[in-house]
Amino acid sequence: ALAQAIRRLREAGIQLSDRRIVKSQRLIAAAALLRGHREASEADLWPLLYVLPTRETQQHGREVLKDLLAQCNNSHLFSAVEEATLQPMARLHRLLETAEDYLGRSEPPASPLLEALLREIDANFNSQTIPQRLHEVRGKVAHLLSAQA
């Protein structure tokens, strides 16, 4: 996956030195370990954006690698992955964690918090793309909101 990503970056005019490629390999391996896997996959490619030298290059790289970065996620570093990739699947763990926190409270959160969470879920996923677990949790949050009304 890394070789494919580097080829795409080069085709788009983004050159990486050998040193930066080696650095990205180490960062991607670390991301895989933090995700609990011994081997890296497409889900671990997000650190590649941080070896690109400028913000503009990072943004261009994000656009070039959009489809590869769509599968990036990490339940422990979801904020970093979300920031790096700007992809809905990167937000999945944070959305699930927030929803489960709200549902697990003895005193439900205020309606605006529930509405904001539902809005964010709906802004990132449609009925075809929403993961099953998030779909289930979304239904429970919507039920909680309607019970408050």
TrEMBL record:
Residues 10-59 form the ATPase RavA-like AAA lid domain. InterPro entries: RavA-like_AAA_lid. Pfam families: AAA_lid_8. This is ATPase AAA. It comes from Pseudomonas fluorescens.
